[in-house]
Amino acid sequence: LSWVIPFAVLFPSLPWLLLFALSGFYFSAWVQFGRTGEWYQPIAYLRLQWIPFYLIWIPQFVRGLRKLMSHQSNQVVESISVVIPTLNEATHIRTCLKSLSQSSTPINEIFVVDGGSQDETKSMIKGFPVRLLESKKGRGYQISLGVKACRSDAVLVLHADASLPPDVAKTIISVLNKNPDVVGGEIGQRFVSTTPKPILLLVEALNDFRATWQSGSFGDQGQFFRRASIEQAGGFPNIPLMEDVELTAQLNKKGSLVFLDGGLQCSARRWEKDNATERFLLVLSLVVRYKFLKLIGKDPSKKLFEEYYRS
Question: Whole-prediction pTM value?
Fold first, then answer.
């Protein structure tokens, strides 16, 4: 079984993790040896072990070849911008901006893109070196507008209820410069909760798993990317919802993504306000339906946006 381990470590992805788990079928050879005196693995067990692996691995292998054939040398990253979409975030936006003001590496630009707040969000950003943009409601629309205004080499998308330690911007720039094939990634988040719930630990674990093994992330994990890469991909997804899922799909076609394994703290307010289990199932349902409908050529983002904000 040990031959699988180097592949799972050096090429961390779902196919190799799955193969490592399914390699337990090798032990069927012991059973056959005990029954017949012959050392072999029945064909049924071989199929159970290898078919799922190849079904998942082959598409990733093909995408990897495409990346290799279309590889472009990425430029050195010297500056970073931050885009923050807001909608009635008066309670949290100052904490978010304070954390950015304490960055050990100066942040070149900070854009707050408001989607029509009815509270004091806009007045709360006064005194901070930020540029306020106004957009129609829809997180994807707001972020897209902010990214278009950015002029830095890299862009970090940060939710208004999040805060960062001082070294994150420095780490992002360092990682992108040390790994020219990396086009973006995610910081990784932990919830700040007044009433800790097991479901929050599950969400954190699943987010980390997806980032590590599937090169995927959600917006509250702190997504970042090279500005040139997203421009080559056609721009930031200009859709009201699921922009984070679509962003990951676009970046995966351009190069590798990296997971920085934490550092971002995110408020658990929505999970505390709503039934956490119901919210978890809702988000899961929205993502699965979005991916399925996109697969068959439909764009369900507006419909899912209405459903999400109606719930």
Answer: 0.85
